Amino acid sequence: MAETSTTSSTLPVVQQPPAYGNMITILSIDGGGVRGLVPSVILAVLESQLQELDGEEARLADYFDVIAGTSTGGLIATMLAAPNENKRPLYAAKDIKPFYLEHSPKIFPQKSGLFKWTRTLVGNLAGPKYDGKYLHGLLRDILGEKRLHDTITNVVIPTFDIKRLQPTIFSSYEIKNSPNLDVKLSDICISTSAAPTYLPAHYFTNLDINGNIREFDLIDGGVAANNPALVAISQVTKQIYNKNPDFFPIKPMDYGRFLVISIGCGSAKMERKYTAPMAAKWGIMSWLIHDGSVPLVDVFNQASADMVDFHISVVFQALHSEDRYLRIQDDELAGTESSVDVSTKENMDKLVQTGEELLKKPVARVNLDTGLTEPVENGGTNEDALKRFAKLLSLEKRHRDEKSASTKN
């Protein structure tokens, strides 16, 4: 198992609320299975830049009011926000990549041999592609009895309740009014990662502090929000509307106060591997299995992710706050790189390389007329943008700390 981060100090870092600052800071991570390696590279660079500014003990959870994640992004969000024995983040961002490289081959064991595709097809017809036992055991071992209320900063992790046919959002903000949502972090991670056809749905019950029992019948949050950035913004907006003192005097529609970094896991959009003439001939089986991928899942996940990006881009550009929204995504994955479960060393190395190359690519933004993502003129590279955002985050944290100290004095 990859080692978790430690800190030389036993004192937790106290994060001051947005009421002491100028911004509301949100980090969002898409779903994508083993492609979580892509954001792992991006996040490590962002955290290292914060450490250059504020010291080696700096962690992402110290700077973001909310860390949101879906599916593999939900796992990463939990790793960044769950506490260790010193009440500091369980994992540093640099630890996430080694974690994926070590455990992905055991979560998604690869079949081999002459009849590999036949066995895969028969297995998929009988049940999910993977039994999830290794992943479930790993998460329970790492996260133990830690619950949603234990996280160092607020987290927002979408799942979907297949019995109620509606999303279930595990949000740190909601547990005060809905204590039955204060479940074990391991159950949240297992649920948001339960991608249809890949991993089994997750059923569990939770006994809350009032003695009430709630049942959960959950699958992958990507069904509802593969890009959870808008869910996170909505959760904050709801708190402002409900007059949560942590956000006073911010107004519900004051989107100009938001700083949002949204990181994708990459997609095969530019590969254009599906066409209408091809899909016109598909029945149920072809929509579920085609050339080693699941077209139905690919379509739903990409559609929801792009709609969120487009919506946020419209709002931020309309308010002339586009420089406070950074979306880092690579739409040029091809072949096995675009799969969620190909955990061979060769493919994982390619994904790491994709993340590294993505840092050198120009900052891109949705063209509101065409709907296409285009490079921003004079926007620099994604790495340049991360450096700029790191400075903003550092200044915001210092401002909050100073204002809090002066208030107490």
From TrEMBL:
Ranges for domain PNPLA: 27-233
| Motif GXGXXG, chain ranges | 31-36
Pfam families per the UniProt record, alphabetical: Patatin
Q: Which CDD domains does the record associate with it?
A: Pat17_isozyme_like
Q: Does the keyword Lipid metabolism apply?
A: yes
Q: What does UniProt list as catalytic?
A: S71 (nucleophile), D220 (proton acceptor)
The record's EC number reads 3.1.1.-
Gene3D superfamilies with a match to the protein in the record: Cytosolic phospholipase A2 catalytic domain (3.40.1090.10)
The GO annotation for biological process reads: defense response; lipid catabolic process
Enzyme's top EC category? hydrolase
Keyword list (alphabetical) reads: Hydrolase, Lipid degradation, Lipid metabolism, Plant defense
Where on this chain is DGA/G (motif)? 220-222
Q: Which GO terms describe its molecular function?
A: monoacylglycerol lipase activity; phospholipase activity
Where, by residue number, is the motif GXSXG? 69-73
Q: Which InterPro entries match?
A: Acyl_Trfase/lysoPLipase (IPR016035), PNPLA_dom (IPR002641)
Instruction: Please give the record's comment on domains.
Output: The nitrogen atoms of the two glycine residues in the GGXR motif define the oxyanion hole, and stabilize the oxyanion that forms during the nucleophilic attack by the catalytic serine during substrate cleavage.
The record's comment on protein family reads: Belongs to the patatin family.
What biological function has been recorded for the protein in this entry?
Lipolytic acyl hydrolase (LAH).
Q: Which PANTHER family match?
A: PATATIN-LIKE PROTEIN 3 (PTHR32176:SF115), XYLOSE ISOMERASE (PTHR32176)
Protein name according to UniProt = Patatin
